[in-house]
Amino acid sequence: MINKSIELFAKAETVIPGGVNSPVRAFKSVGGTPIFMKKAKGAYLFDEDGNRYIDYINSWGPMILGHAYEPVVKAIQQKAEDSTSFGAPTALETDVAALIKTMAPNIDLIRMVNSGTEACMSALRLARGYTRRNKFIKFEGCYHGHADSFLVKAGSGLATFNIQAVPGVTEGVAQDTLTAPYNDLEAVKKLVSDHPGEIAAIIIEPVAGNMGCILPQPGFLESLRNICTEEGIVLIFDEVMTGFRLARGGAQERFGIDADLATYGKVIGGGMPVGAFGGKKEIMQHIAPLGKVYQAGTLSGNPLAMTAGYTLLKTLNDRPEIYTELEEKTAYLYTGLEKAFRESGRPFRLNRLGSMLSVHFSQTPVSNFEQASKADNASFNRFFHAMLGKGVYLPPSAFESWFISNALTYEDLDNTIRAAAESLKEMA
Ligand code: HOZ
Q: Which of 78, 165, 185, 403 gives a 20 to 30 Å CA spacing to 139?
């Protein structure tokens, strides 16, 4: 029964475009009514009708230790007593920056912003200002937030709703966005040789999470690093999803590859609206007020957001066993799901790295956006609803990654695997 959600959605549609504040939440591609949540604790979401769900979205990544993680909640409550915003520097911002510097490689300087979108658009502006070049390369199906330059062949909601060109993004802006298929090194080399001295940056999700979860093929990221070094191009790792999730130092640590700039969001804010971009001093020193590349924000470094982020990051930093536990739990889930899908006789591809995972209903491996688009997404939609009916909350799109939280117990994982096996049977 989701009567209250149905009622609340109808009401929301009268005052909010599509009834939601971020498009994928609308369930438009999977169909049905979005579930309105009331509260969450640990691995579980509770909706307005009182139903409980095992959560595999985890606020699209931030809740790596589960919802309402007590130390974070307490820290926010305490901090709020001292005012919710100053618009002036605080000691806490330095503590957060210093902590990140010890956790993530190649972060000499870091600037806090309010979202992953802001982080990526600022990093791109910085790369352009630093190199004095205009064009950049992104990969089809990667999503770097909704700044104009990135809304070209993008993943996430644009893939979900099949939006090829976004009205409002001018041709002038879009012409500086060059795209290549994910994992296609030859396409990157061709773009670089077709535009000598014109490319400011290559930006990539080192593990893509906005076309389902898609892994870089061995050597791909290394080759991008080499091309960037040879051509004076800034390599930007968009670590909004992977940062502090794939490892303490994110994808840079996990793959042992140095980015020039990295962007962060999600986990970095402990569930509060936070993003950040940082990297090598030589580049970062061009940001105002040190340099002329302008970037600013009234709520940047907000005390509540900083205290939430600091508390969560400090836990991750001090307890490295969390990453082992996450790895083991996700591997356990993967193995169970793999068996359930195999026994169902349906074509499938499960992609996983660390605590990111997704399923594509596909005969062939899925290592780029074209392959993800060719998967049987109608089957994904049926699977999604069957799982939802059994109390398992998956991303409402095949073009999103699942995020595993360490609050999940092995009993939750077993229940999820059982729900998947039953859902696949029902679909037969
Ligand atoms: N763009 C987010 C996932 N890749 C969705 C955010 C949301 O709807 O909350």
A: 403
Catalytic residue, candidates 44, 53, 69, 143: 143
29-76 pLDDT per residue, tens: 999 999 999 999 999 999 999 999 999 999 999 999 999 999 999 999
Using the mean position of ligand 1's atoms as its centre, give its distance from the Cα of residue 229 in Å.
Answer: 32
Ligand 1 nearest-atom number relative to CA 21: 8
3-68+320-427: CATH superfamily: Aspartate Aminotransferase, domain 1 (3.90.1150.10)
Whether 266 is catalytic is yes
Residue 334 annotated to the active site: no
Contact 247, 355 (CB under 8 A): no
Domain 70-318 sits in CATH at 3.40.640.10
Nearest atom of ligand 1 to the alpha carbon of 209: 4
H-helix or E-strand containing 308? helix 303-318
Ligand 1 and 60: CB distance under 6 A:
yes
Beta bridge mates, 16 = none
Residues 42 and 325: their CA atoms lie apart, in Å, by 15
Q: Name every residue whose Cβ is closer than 8 Å to that of residue 226 and which is 6 or more positions away in sequence.
A: none
